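Many introductory courses stop at the sequence. We go one step further.
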Amino acid sequence: MRLPAGRQAGLHRFLIQTESGYRYVEIMLEVVEAIANAIDGLVVIMLVLGMLLSFARALQSLLARQRLTGTVRQLRVDLGQVLLLSLEVLIVSDILHSIVKRTLEEVGILAVVVIIRIALSYFLDREIEHLQAERDHLV
């Protein structure tokens, strides 16, 4: 397959020339990349809002004169749940980015990032369950 002059190696080597040229595939890849970037932005908003809500809940508990240890455990659970949800949404974003980034090196890097995020999610979920069990035991 011969590519038009000026095309980059990597992404464009997977394009198939049709009667209308390469444009439709390029548009689709740009849309997928835009969606993945929007999801990345959504994760930032989720993290900031989740953190603010978690601290507001902890402050409310402290003002209600609840025990400090219980409040701290609840804060850790709340923040952990926000992080866990964010990591899971970022995995979706990584999968979409892998559709666009098709060189072996880029896909390999994304695969490592996804594996790390899955491991973090697993251990964070276990920690949250442990904290919730401790909190329930104290109540």
